[in-house]
Amino acid sequence: MEECCFREDQELCIFYSSRLLELIMKKYTYAILVVLDKYGKLRFNEIQRKILGLTQRTLSIRLKELEKVKLIKRVVEPSEPVKVYYTITTEGKAVKNAMQILVSLANLLDNNKDAYLC
């Protein structure tokens, strides 16, 4: 664990999860959270069809990562055949909203938009 960077005001230090912060910055994290927030519950292929350029492998990895940090929930319906859905959690909505706010603030400071957040 690193030391706090403040010499005298250590109460200003904030511990954070570097794993979560890295996941938030990965490609397609935001897009997955947005589509799950908009549509409620979606199956794997439905998510993939809604996000341009998202491969099965990347979607599978990202869903596992998001589930591990509790930003999404994997729901298994015991039917014949078994159906698996993904839904966004309250924490996932909070992260998505925070990302939108940060991008909006960045856009206020710099009108030279040159990329989409996915």
UniProtKB/TrEMBL annotation:
Keywords: DNA-binding, Transcription, Transcription regulation
A family per Pfam: HxlR
Gene3D superfamilies (alphabetical): Winged helix-like DNA-binding domain superfamily/Winged helix DNA-binding domain (1.10.10.10)
InterPro entries: HTH_HxlR, WH-like_DNA-bd_sf, WH_DNA-bd_sf
Gene Ontology MF terms: DNA binding
Superkingdom classification of source: Archaea
Domain HTH hxlR-type: 13-114
Record-given protein name: Transcriptional regulator
